[in-house]
Amino acid sequence: MKNLLKNFFIFFIILLVVSGLFYSASDAEQPKDYVGIQKLVEEINGESVESVTVEGNLLRVKLKDGSGQKVKKENGESLSALLKNFSVAPDKLAKVNIEVKDESGLSFWASMLLPIALPLLLIGVFIYFMARQIQGANVRALMFGQSQAREVKQDQDKKKQITFKDVAGVKEAKEELKEVVEFLTSPKKFLELGANIPKGVLLVGAPGTGKTLLAKAVAGEAHVPFFHMSGSEFVEMFVGVGASRVRDLFKRAKKSAPCIVFIDEIDAVGRQRGSGLGGSHDEREQTLNQILVEMDGFEPNTNVIVIAATNRPDVLDPALLRPGRFDRRVVLDEPDINDRTEILKVHSQKKPLGKEVSLRRIAERTPGFSGADLANLLNEAAILSARNGKRLIEMPELFQSIEKVMLGPERKSRVLSDKEKKITAYHEAGHALVTHILPNTDPVQKISIISRGMAGGYTLKVPLEDKRMHSRQEFLEELSVLLGGYIAEREIFGDITTGATSDLRTATHLARRMITDYGMSRELGPRTFGSREELIFLGRELHEQRDYSEKIAERIDDEIMHYLNEAAERARQIIREHKPKLEKIVEALLKQEKLEKEEFEELVKA
Ligand code: ADP
Ligand code: ZN
């Protein structure tokens, strides 16, 4: 709106200047030899005029003495009538040679058209600016229904294409998707045998595991165009937009068949219907219906394959998963250590690595990292190396980047007071000591009291191998480790700080899950408590359904308390018993702020 006003103002100024120019231009046209009509009349009466030439409103007067004059007359009035009105004697007039010439073409047209055209032109310019303003204000009402899918045409340049080579790990997924590539490249083979080519593939995997990358690779392998749209992009403020975008997307896709349509985050539109709080006919539902209609409407030989991605297959509407729709499901696991090494290899191809860099060791230190995290790690390492003025990426930068990706950047600027530093040191030493003493915990990789991201300090533990399963004993020890910091503060200072908040929350959450989800309670027996049936309102989970009685709820609370107290007690014993070691760790931490695995083990060995 402010912009509009500004433009209007500018426009107004321009108008003023232009009209001013015109005014002065017509003014300037009054040279010295112009005379009034009165003068002309006198001259005619005095017989000193030889001839008068009429050009429109301009009278060129030639006097007998050879000089010339110009006279302007009123618009539209004829010269003879004018002169009569000024009472020129007819006999004197008869002696003047009067000649009427056409006005010169240009000035005639200019004088005729300018008064009409100029305002029109100005109004036109004004409207044009207004219209541009309104468009700029993003009221593209007419474009709403069109899909904003991004289309990736296959480059002629084969080198730039993303293919399966660029996707590391996920072997099973690649194997399954090779079939899709075949459907796209040689559909005949399948149609001749009467096979129905699948229309939809659902990629299931956590964020950053490479779903988008894999879909692109399929398009690259098959050398077909790739339409990319995210589920959340279908849904706008206005009802019906989503459905219309789906229609538009599929129309475009069918035109460029064979091709791949990739719908990211399908759960944004494909959640189970009827569970929304916004009535049964909400926008999401219509969008979903339209997707189903489009997929059902494919001719058997329409060679469009829809690949959808989600990390929540459990919330999807069953209608989406029926045969003929997204009936193929491809799961992308989190990368294991070999996959991680592979992914690191793929992403370090264009990065110069130092000679002693071992990607395997990086992979060892990064369990739980997704492909995207690993790509990010290498990028951070490259940036860090550049900032350190190195020409190659070396191990220290890589290690540092692991922590950065995990915990956020180091914040050396957040200066801890000596007291805070001491508390943090005891807190982290508490975690580390408990970890070291208990047998079923992951080894300590690093302790630091430099704050990082949200954490004041941190103790990094990394499992020796990738784990898919955890035992009750491991969890119990983990609880003690989590409470180790809190207990250390209490034992040493007799007081507690807010630094332990997130530890306590994590511990409580873990204890609850042990009891309600994993059946690991002593008394409550082998069952789960509470079902996470989702009520969806604005896409958030509001509610955990309670499927147990008030009495059981009390017992669950008791159990949680019991586990936590037990864990705290164990931590306290360890800290009391090994206090000299604790002090040693704290001393080292205060001195050098960070302890690596080897240094730590050296300290606590004895
Ligand atoms: P998703 O769609 O599953 O959230 P993306 O496909 O967008 O994840 O992955 C993000 C980035 O992470 C990719 O562009 C790629 O650089 C990297 N990445 C993820 N998985 C892999 C993998 N298996 N191999 C190579 N790079 C990967
Ligand atoms: Zn802690």
Automatic annotation (TrEMBL):
Entries under Gene3D superfamilies matching the protein? 1.10.8.60, P-loop containing nucleotide triphosphate hydrolases, Peptidase M41
Keywords of the record, alphabetical order, are:
ATP-binding, Cell cycle, Cell division, Cell membrane, Hydrolase, Membrane, Metal-binding, Metalloprotease, Nucleotide-binding, Protease, Transmembrane, Transmembrane helix, Zinc
Q: Which cofactors does it use?
A: Zn(2+)
Q: Which residues cross the membrane?
A: 7-25, 108-131
Q: Any note on cofactor binding?
A: Binds 1 zinc ion per subunit.
UniProt keyword Protease, yes or no: yes
Superkingdom of this protein's organism:
Bacteria
Per UniProt, where does Zn(2+) bind? 427, 431, 503
- Where is the catalytic site? 428
Which terms in the GO cellular component ontology are assigned?
plasma membrane
**GO annotations under biological process?**
cell division; protein catabolic process; proteolysis
Keyword Cell division tagged: yes
Quaternary structure and partners? Homohexamer.
Q: Which family does it belong to?
A: Belongs to the AAA ATPase family. In the C-terminal section; belongs to the peptidase M41 family.
| Entries under NCBIfam families matching the protein | FtsH_fam
Protein name, UniProt field: ATP-dependent zinc metalloprotease FtsH
Species of origin = Candidatus Falkowbacteria bacterium CG10_big_fil_rev_8_21_14_0_10_43_11
What lineage is on file?
Bacteria, Candidatus Falkowiibacteriota
Q: Gene symbol?
A: ftsH
